[in-house]
Amino acid sequence: GHVAATSALSDIKWYPDYDTPYDEATCLSGGNPNGRPTYATQGECCIKAYPDQTTGACFAGMATAPSAAPSSVDDIKDYPDYDT
Predict the structure, then answer these.
(1) How far apart are CA 62 and CA 2, in angstroms?
(2) Could you report the per-residue pLDDT of 1-32, keeping only the tens digit for each?
(3) CB atoms closer than 10 angstroms to residue 39
(4) What is the pLDDT of residues 62-79, one digit of tens each?
(5) Out of 9, 27, 39, 68, which could bridge 44 as a Cys pair, Cβ 3.0 to 4.6 Å?
(6) For residue 50, is pLDDT > 70?
């Protein structure tokens, strides 16, 4: 029989790497967040977990890193923003 994948892409959560110094930290996926906040996307995690990071390390760690760190989640949406 067909066995479904154990984790669909939508099930992957991103969480901050609190074991790494703030300015060097990135967001992690998979594994156990151990009670850390989790986010649906890597970009959202970077913005919300490391808003004051001056190095851009979190965004640099993304598979498809933006050319400049977005200032808000609104800057990295791939769909229409019906709230505005």
Answers:
(1) 32
(2) 555 444 455 577 999 999 999 999 999 998 88
(3) 21
(4) 877 655 555 555 555 455
(5) 39
(6) yes
Q: Is 59 left (phi over 0), alpha (psi -120 to 50) or beta?
A: alpha
Residues contacting 8, CB < 8 A, separation 6+ = none
Q: How far is CA 15 from CA 18, 21, 25, 30, in A?
A: 9, 15, 11, 9
* Gap between the Cα atoms of 59 and 26, Å rounded: 7
- How far lies 34's CA from each of 9, 19, 31, 38, 40, in Å? 20, 12, 9, 10, 16
